[in-house]
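Appendix B. Raw example, untouched.
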Amino acid sequence: MTPDRRPPGPHRGARALLALAAAGALALLTTAPAAAHVLIETVEPRGDGTSRLTFTFDHGCDGEPTDALRVTLPAGVEALDAGQPAGWTAEVTDDAVAWAGEPVPDGERAAFTLDVRVTGEPGQAFVFPAVQECPSGASYAWTDTDPAGARPAPTFVATAASLAPAPVAAGASPTPTGPLVGAVVLGAGVVGVAGGAWSRRRARG
């Protein structure tokens, strides 16, 4: 049988284009949830060695609403207080914060604040693995430590302003200031004058 060597007709070309378009749409549907992250939207230094983090999301689980969010705290981060949006409660432990409450519809923005004390170095990245939960039991684990991962964890890079002051080393004495310094200097002057007078008496003797 002689193979058909005729160039593809317009109908065959249209079918090929439709197949490509369908594949592209499927790819978009597959990656869309991963592109909608739980984020640390802002880091607000409070001026007292603490900072306020704001976690946000605006999506659910494949169209479902969200009714819980759990965030794990990295080393160097101490949770002090968690905001409780209307209809939600927060539970703070040593290593995590969990919010739960009335379902937030898919596509609606939600924000949760967390006051923290952060110890570390300027430029250090702090990663907060997060799990977003929905009423059916579905969930998204935003836990990738690589920002380019499919589901990156909420992350922020510390600045000097967002870090708690470094503690004074044990046993270190503070530098004397004020009246104490003046007294020490005055005492040194008296000793110097007395020493000079004693030297002159010896020279005359």
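End of appendix B.
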